[in-house]
Each structure stands twice: as structure tokens, then as C-alpha cells.
Amino acid sequence: MSDKSFYEQVYDLVRQIPRGRVTSYGRVAQMLGRPNAARAVGYALSALKDEQTTVAKDVPWHRVINSQGRITISNREHSAEDQALLLRAEGIMVGDDMRVDLDHYLWRGLHWLEIDDILGEN
DNA sequence: ACAGTGACAACAT
DNA sequence: TATGTTGCCACTG
After folding, report:
1. Strand C positions with any atom < 7 Å from protein CB?
2. What is the per-residue pLDDT across A16-67, written as a single tens digit (0 to 9) for each?
3. Taking all atoms of strand C, which protein residues have CB closer than 7 Å?
């Protein structure tokens, strides 16, 4: 498939999430062929705050939330409110309980062929 | 090599 | 609906 690190694969995929849509950590993991690596996906996005290089640029990390449609982020760089603000800026409705209606905003992802294409480039 | 960590997820209460 | 528990994973010191 690809010789890119898991982190890079996650970033590449997250960059494909359309503006105004969201997906879950688990779905990202599943799309990368690792159905049980949801936790690692969160870990990868968390690492963005330390990445000063270009690989971390333009990664819409805020479009990734948990499988229940809830924002669960919390680290020294960003808060749940920060993420909610970014999502609302894209027209996504985020309740005070930090929840998003997945039936309306969920990005179901790509097919394996397209994914292979994306990860294969550059 | 190995234990600890964390932006998860599924399931049981 | 709201916790708690357990399994998983990539990465780090």
C-alpha cells in the first residue's frame, strides 16, 4: 500500500474531509485499514500541536470527532470550545453539550480505491 | 524490550 | 442518558 507512517496517512486522509462535514476517529482508522486504531488516530492528531513542519499544515483536525458525534478534545493547545468555534465557522451546528448531529454532517468517507490513490500520491 | 500515555470505541450497568 | 470497564494502537522514554 503505502510506506508512509501512520501519522502521515492520517493527515492525508483528514485533509480529504470536506468543509462543513465531520467524521469520527474510528472511521478514519477504518478507512486506513486499521479498524481498531481509533485511539491511535486521536494520538496522531494530538501530535499536530508539536509538528512545526509542513506535514502538519492544512490538516482540518477539527472535523474529526468521536463516534457519538461529540467533541472530546482537550490538550494544552486547544479546547472543546475552540473546536466548536471552528466547526460553527463552517456552518456546522454544535450544541452546548458539544454534540453534532451525525445524521446531517457525517462524512462517510471514500472507497478503498480512492483512498489507495490518495495515499499513493507524492 | 517494555511499560506508560491518550483528542477512541463497544459494551455493561 | 450517564458513568465505568475493557480492548486496542502507535509512539515515546
Report:
1. 2, 7-11
2. 999 999 999 999 999 999 999 999 999 999 999 887 666 667 999 999 999 9
3. A 5-7, 34, 36-40, 43-44, 47, 97
> Which positions on chain B have an atom < 7 Å from some protein CB?
5-10
Q: Distance (Å, rounded) from C-alpha A57 to C-alpha A37?
A: 23
Quick one: CA torsion of A116, A3, A25, A111, rounded to 10 degrees? 10
Task: Give the predicted TM-score (pTM) of the model.
Answer: 0.90
